Amino acid sequence: MEAQSSSTLLLSRKRRRDGSNGEAEEGERFGKIPRCTVGLRHPAPFADELEPADSKAYKRVSMEEAKRGTPPERPVRVYADGIFDLFHSGHARALMQAKCLFPNTHLIVGVCSDDLTHKYKGFTVMNEDERYDAIRHCRYVDEVVRNAPWTLTPEFLAKHRIDFVAHDDIPYSSAGSDDVYKHIKEAGMFAPTQRTEGISTSDVITRIVRDYDVYVRRNLQRGYTAKELNVSFINEKKYHLQERVDKVKKKVRDVEEKSKEFVQKVEEKSIDLIQKWEEKSREFIGNFLQMFGPEGALKHMLKEGRGRMLQAISPRQSPSSSPTREERSPSPTFRLPFFSKTSPPPSPPHHSGARGYLISEDDDDEDDEN
């Protein structure tokens, strides 16, 4: 039941959300998965290490019964086989689909031996023990069958009490047959799964072959010997030379990048300095024009000073008609420059009887009349 709940959680990711009109709509957004622990603590057991099955006669369940759900003590036994060389996410997704075919599933995975694989398919990167162990540690696997047959026989299906066989629906031609699962499909025991596009063991091997030099140099750099990599002496020296050339190129690229960063920083600083200089220049020119321009403050100051000077040195204008003596107001007394308020009046000279007198504008007028 724990596996059932986890598979239901993984498969049902769509969330329902309320629209603006109040109706529920299917959303494409994925919800976050609640934190839980569903992984197994031990690898899946091998089939030949398990206790013998129940002595009762085995009766297969139908597809309808399997989809409807079986009792906990009677899970649907699904079998999936393969080579599983360089175990990758495509393999894991196929096993996940097989595990999630029915609500209560016991997944049995068969792995072919090296002899059968090399005979019918070709050489593998991983040996059979490594491939067995990789499948044991997949979380969806409940049981592993070592040295699985290339073609499923009725005896093998009955021995492992298999209800359904899971595999992708593409015809698998091998061992002189157009489709090795043809008799399984005719018996109604076939449950199709979907392949994961873009990933396969052949794709991984193609990448390695395509970039062979890169991976050889990588392993030489990590300490593997040329003998371990089956590389000749000349190729070993060539790869070491390429490695040194690549290091020099990397250093040159680093220097170029640092130079570009330095030039960029200098340009940014120079642009800032030019902008500040332009701002200060505009401010200086504005202040200069405000002071010394045609309508500047200095011109107004000069005009004002000139007007004051002209006003100070220009004589007063006489009135057009001079008033008569009677109309004139008495003129204030005028003292000679050598008389001052602070100096005492000069004493009369002894040789003359003249006396000091005040000169006024009235006296001048009288003298003129006489």
UniProtKB/TrEMBL annotation:
Compositionally biased spans, kind Acidic residues: 360-370
Feature: compositional bias, Low complexity: 1-11, 314-323
Protein name: choline-phosphate cytidylyltransferase
Highest classification ranks of the organism: Eukaryota, Metazoa, Chordata, Craniata, Vertebrata
Key words, A-Z: Coiled coil, Lipid biosynthesis, Lipid metabolism, Nucleotidyltransferase, Phospholipid biosynthesis, Phospholipid metabolism, Transferase
Gene Ontology cellular component annotations, sorted alphabetically: endoplasmic reticulum
Pfam families reported in the protein's UniProt record: CTP_transf_like (PF01467)
Residues in Cytidyltransferase-like domain copies: 79-207
EC numbers for this chain: 2.7.7.15
Gene: pcyt1aa
PANTHER family assigned to the protein according to its UniProt record, in alphabetical order: CHOLINE-PHOSPHATE CYTIDYLYLTRANSFERASE A, CYTIDYLYLTRANSFERASE
Pathway membership, UniProt: Phospholipid metabolism; phosphatidylcholine biosynthesis; phosphatidylcholine from phosphocholine: step 1/2; Lipid metabolism
